[in-house]
Every structure is written in C-alpha cells, then in structure tokens.
Design goal:
There is one protein chain. The chain is mostly helical. The chain contains 14 helices and two strands. It has a domain of 84 residues: Serine Threonine Protein Phosphatase 5, Tetratricopeptide repeat (Alpha Horseshoe), CATH 1.25.40.10. The chain has a two-stranded antiparallel sheet with strand order 1-2. A hairpin with a 4-residue loop joins strand 1 and strand 2. The radius of gyration is 23 Å and the shape is globular. It starts with 16 loop residues before the first strand and ends with a helix. The N terminus is likely disordered.
C-alpha cells in the first residue's frame, strides 16, 4: 500500500471543430483543434530521438488509463535506448499501475542494475515487502548502510511493511514507531501502523493513530478512509460516513471510500 493502488482513469474530450468566417472571400472554413495526442505524435515525427517528447506521450496515455499503449511506447523506446534508466523506472511504474506487480519488480531490478539510485531501491524494496519477499530486508539494510542515500526512514518503513505483510504485527508496529520518531509527518508509517492494529482488531488504538495523523496532515485522504473503517467496526455509522465523505473530499476518485460509503448509506 506504499504506492497508492486506486489509479485515476481520465478521458479527454473529443476534438472540437471551430467554424471561422472569412470576410475577404465570404467563405466559411473549419479549423480542427489539435488534440494533445496528435500534437505529441506530430512533434515526435519531427524529433524522433527526443526522449522528453516520448515520455510526455507515455504520460498522456498513462494519465488516461491506457497502460497497454503507454507500455508499448515505453518498450519501443527501451529497444532504442536500453541503458536509459528512467525508461525502466517508467516501465516499472506503468506495470504497477496496471496491476502487474511481478513485471514492475523485474523492471525495477533492471533499473537498479543500470544505476542503483536510492529511489529505485526504495521502490523495489517496497514491492518486495508487499510480496513477502525477504529481499526487502536486504535492500533496507543496504539503504541504512549507505550514508549518502539519507534513506534510513524509508529503509525502516520497508522493514515494517515486510513484517506487516508476513503478519508479524508486533515487530511491524515497533518499526513504524521508529519511522514516526525519525519523522513525525511520515503519513505512510501512521497508515501502516493503524492497519496493523486494525488487523488485530484493536480499532480504538488504530483510531488514536489515525486521529493524530489527520491532525498533523488534515488532507490525508487515506487516514480518513481508515478512520471510516475503524468506526464501521465499532458500529459508529455516522462517524464512519463522515470519515468516508472527508476522504472523498480530498480525493474524489478514492474508489474504496466511495464503495464503503455506498454500502453504509444503502445506495
């Protein structure tokens, strides 16, 4: 749950046709507005070696939920530039957004082989943790040992996430507490600690953690969503409804919050 799973699918409107009146010859012409997609493709045709334009086109398709096309363009770019680490990072992210965690892991592994930047190691370590792969602990220790990475907080979080997923809740909570001591604004640690408590049926304790989180960051949508879940377990329907509404206020496309709200409101 480190990387938010509920991705937004946006659909752009169709191309509009604008009619113009030419006073000189009294003829009516129509100008077709150029869509972002068409414009990007035209620019790439002129500058086929521009990775920046290619990345913008990939982003366009990704933002619109067209991951297959985005991945196809990414693969084509990689075939021409196999050692460009940013492309492997893009590919990994696209696979993750498309629900293919295994392919995302393989792409991040390739990125690290090319250039082991801390951000790629953090992403891979997180996915290892979510798939219960003990390699997560190895990467976390590597981050802690690399002083220049300055990623101790993220490394400890990866360990906590791993233990949470293998159901060692006590160890996970202790690690999340360590994260919070290092950075009291680290919302991921609050969320995962609350989930660990929630999984053990400790809903009141989870509420305290989440209440502190949303007090520190009042637009923390996932915090409100989990507050709603805790209130629902405690049979506090109105509080749960309000929490889900607040989550949706900060993220109108929060699918899980919307679905939970519909169930409670009987819609």
């Amino acid at each position: 749950m480190f990387l938010k799973k509920n991705t937004v699918l946006l659909i752009l409107s169709a191309v509009s046709i604008i009619a113009c009146n030419n006073k000189e010859d009294d003829t009516e012409t129509k100008t077709e507005a150029v869509s972002p997609e068409k414009k990007l493709k035209e620019d790439i045709a002129i500058y086929p070696d521009s990775l920046l334009l290619t990345q913008k086109l990939i982003e366009y398709y990704s933002d619109n939920g067209n991951y297959d096309t985005a991945l196809a363009i990414t693969d084509k770019a990689i075939s021409k530039n196999p050692d460009v680490v940013e492309l492997w990072d893009i590919k990994a992210t696209l696979h993750f957004q498309n629900g293919d965690t295994i392919a995302a892991i393989k792409s991040f592994e390739k990125a690290i082989d090319i250039f082991p930047l801390p951000k790629y190691i953090i992403s891979l370590g997180t996915l290892y943790a979510q798939t219960k792969n003990p390699k997560a602990l190895i990467l976390a220790d590597a981050l802690i040992g690399a002083d220049k990475a300055k990623a101790a907080k993220e490394a400890i979080f990866i360990k906590g996430l791993y233990y949470n997923y293998i159901n060692d809740k006590k160890k996970a909570i202790a690690l999340f507490d360590s994260c919070i001591r290092l950075d009291y604004t680290y919302m991921f640690a609050y969320r995962e600690k609350a989930i660990a408590l929630y999984d053990q049926g400790k809903y009141e304790e989870a509420l305290k953690v989440l209440t502190r989180a949303v007090t520190i960051q009042n637009n923390f949508d996932e915090g409100y969503y989990w507050l709603g879940n805790c209130y629902k377990k405690l049979n506090k329907k109105e509080e749960a409804i309000q929490s889900y509404h607040t989550a949706l206020m900060y993220d109108k496309d929060f699918i899980e919050a919307r679905d939970s709200l519909k169930i409670l409101e009987g819609k």
